[in-house]
Design a protein that fits this description.
The chain has about 100 residues and is of the alpha+beta class. It contains one helix and six strands. Strands 1-6-3 form a three-stranded antiparallel sheet, with no helix packed on it. It has a three-stranded antiparallel sheet with strand order 2-5-4, with no helix packed on it. The two termini are about 20 Å apart.
Amino acid sequence: MSVRDLKKIAGDDISNRSQDNTDTVLRPIINSAIIDGVLLNDIELTYGANTIEHKLGRKLLGYIVVRKNNDAVISDAQDTNKLSSKNLILYSDTLVTVSLWCF
């Protein structure tokens, strides 16, 4: 079951209204592009350009560095990425291991 599958169950009038209100609040969050992502753990980046398969099965919208084990400067080259929509190109100024949330 995906996080996007918000199911309603049959109930009385109060229960149905409660579910409708919950759906109204949660639906924009569930449909947010950042929710539909993949966590990549322990990606080793070396100095310079690093090509990483983001495993989304679609074009990358963005990424967040959620963990890094060194004080590294990390930037991307997505504007010039001609390899494939399946890859993320990251530049690092030093050897670092990162975890990334790709969405």
